[in-house]
Design goal:
129 residues, alpha+beta, 2 domains, 31% strand
C-alpha cells in the first residue's frame, strides 16, 4: 500500500473513532436516566376515585398549592386547559380542583372532580436549562 493511501486510512480511522466517541458522549448526556423519586412512586400508585384527604395521605403531606380551574379530561394522565382548541374534540371542560406538590425538580398534580374524587394524576419535572 502506498503512503498516501495509508495516511488517508489513518485519518479516516481517527475521524471515525472521534465521531463515535462524540456520539456516545452526547447520547449519554441526553438520555441520562433520572432516578425515580418517592413523589413519582406515590402518584403512580394512587388509585383513582379516592377523596382528596386520602390523596394527601398517599403523598404523605398536604399539597403545596390548590387551585380551581376548568379542564378537559382525556384520560387519568392527560388533560387539556378548558380553553384549549385541541381539547374540545374530547368534550366540554369541567371544573376541577388541582392539588400540586413540589419536591426539588419533580412536581405532582392531582385533579379532584366536583364529587371530591381523584379524576386524574400525573408528575412532571422541570426542564434543565
Amino acid at each position: 500500500m502506498n503512503t498516501k493511501r495509508r495516511r488517508l486510512l489513518r485519518i479516516a480511522s481517527v475521524a471515525a473513532m472521534v465521531g463515535l466517541a462524540s456520539v456516545g458522549f452526547l447520547y449519554s448526556q441526553i438520555e441520562k436516566p433520572q432516578p425515580v423519586t418517592q413523589l413519582e412512586i406515590a402518584v403512580a400508585r394512587m388509585p383513582l376515585g379516592i377523596n382528596a384527604e386520602d390523596a394527601d395521605r398517599v403523598i404523605g403531606s398536604s399539597p403545596d398549592a390548590i387551585e380551581d380551574g376548568r379542564a378537559i379530561l382525556v384520560n387519568p394522565v392527560m388533560m387539556f386547559s378548558g380553553s384549549s382548541v385541541q381539547g374540545q374534540k374530547y368534550g366540554d371542560p369541567n371544573l376541577y380542583s388541582f392539588r400540586t406538590w413540589t419536591r426539588g425538580d419533580v412536581h405532582a398534580s392531582v385533579a379532584i372532580d366536583t364529587d371530591g374524587k381523584v379524576a386524574a394524576r400525573w408528575t412532571y419535572r422541570d426542564q434543565p436549562n
